[in-house]
Amino acid sequence: MTPQTADEALKLAEDDRDSVIALTQDLVRLPSRGGIDSYDPVLERMENWLHGHGLPAHRLTDTDGQNVALVSEVVGDPVGPRYVLDACLDTAPFGDEKAWSRPPTSGDLVDGWMHGRGTSDSKVGAAVFAHLAARLNAVAGGLGGSLVLLFDVDEHTGGFGGAKAYFEGSDAPPRVDGVMIGYPGIDHVVIGGRGVLRAQMHVYGVAAHSGSRSSSPNAITKAAQLVSALHAVELPDTAGETFPLPAKLTVTAITGGQGYSTVPDLCILNVDIRLTPALAQQDAVDLLHAQAAAVDAAWPETKSTSIDFTTRWPEYALPDSSPLRAALLDGAHAVRLAPTAKIAGPSNIGNYLAGLGVPATAGFGVDHIGLHATDERIRLDTIEPVQAAYQLALNVLFAADQHERGC
């Protein structure tokens, strides 16, 4: 059965409620901290669930052969659109476990809340999406396209290896029409985010003995001047009402020197710039080069500063006319939730996808407390309306494409 009304979608979500909670508990009880724990147990648990519900599943690996994601695809109309539901199965670290009121892998249910690391980010999202796929798989013959589950286990490392393996790997699909990411939060549908440009600036001096009578250009001193210059740069405020957040520049790390007896000849600065339409990627690149050149000119005895750009994700915002944006907001409103569209300050996987030309919502999910913090937990009574909202959104997206094709 494919629900046609909000009440029907809520009824199916209610029927799935206990199963969603049980699967989420199982996943939470398997520690999967990014870069710390083995991902095999959590991947195996989800694989078994998918196979047990008639869904195919296969793992994706990176270039080193390490597991980075689990993928399952429900294929309906082969010429229809392909939509991806994305959630991560790895988690943030636990932090100080003694500060938790319950063990981070407890999955305890207390007063309408489930406790544990990864409950909100985003094992419950994965459990909800798995149940939606199982529902649609039962009626795949009438599905107006294909639905993909992408469960990343390289998200909290910052590598996003699962997404990269799926969207850019050797078996990348020829077409993806949209992605909905199951990050938590019931008050907003995240429809955009500031981009990010990250760079390492290699600032040079001239090595010498620190006790020498003559002075030698000190890379740390030179770098300090560059830090001050970067701090003083006036960035454009906002790009207007459609993108209300300002650009931001932060020096996040300084590395240089060793011991006491040597004047350092190299100091490395890590710089993070948050991008907006008013300060796009090339603007930020030009800014760093200009500031480096100005400082270099005052230090003629040294090598010019070199810059390595490590991350380039564009800013993005889905327009009001975006079918993906409208479908999820309308679905949420239909089940009596009241999220608003939001452009996020931090960058997210949606920015990466924007760079590939793939539209994405980057957050809408259950109500939660303690994301990445002590006593992370989710509000259980928000699971059903969130699942129903996604169900209604998928119905609209697949039906719209069928209508356009005259099916």
CATH topology of the largest domain: Aminopeptidase
Structural class: alpha+beta
Report the average pLDDT across residues.
Answer: 95
Q: Which architecture of the largest domain would the CATH scheme give at its second level?
A: 3-Layer(aba) Sandwich
Q: What's the total number of strands?
A: 19
* Structural domains: how many: 2
Output the CATH homologous superfamily of the largest domain. Answer: Zn peptidases
Morphology call: elongated
Main sheet characteristics? 6 strands, mixed
Q: Give helix % range.
A: 25-40%
Q: Beta-sheet strand percentage?
A: 15-25%
- Contiguous runs where pLDDT drops below 50 for at least 5 residues: none
Helix segment count? Answer: 9
Task: Please identify the top-level CATH class of the largest domain.
Answer: Alpha Beta
Tell me the series of helices and strands, N- to C-terminal.
Answer: HHEEEEEHEHEEEEHEEEHEEHEHEEEH
Arrangement of strands in the largest sheet: 1-2-6-3-7-17
Distance between the ends: 19 Å
The value of Rg in angstroms is 24 Å
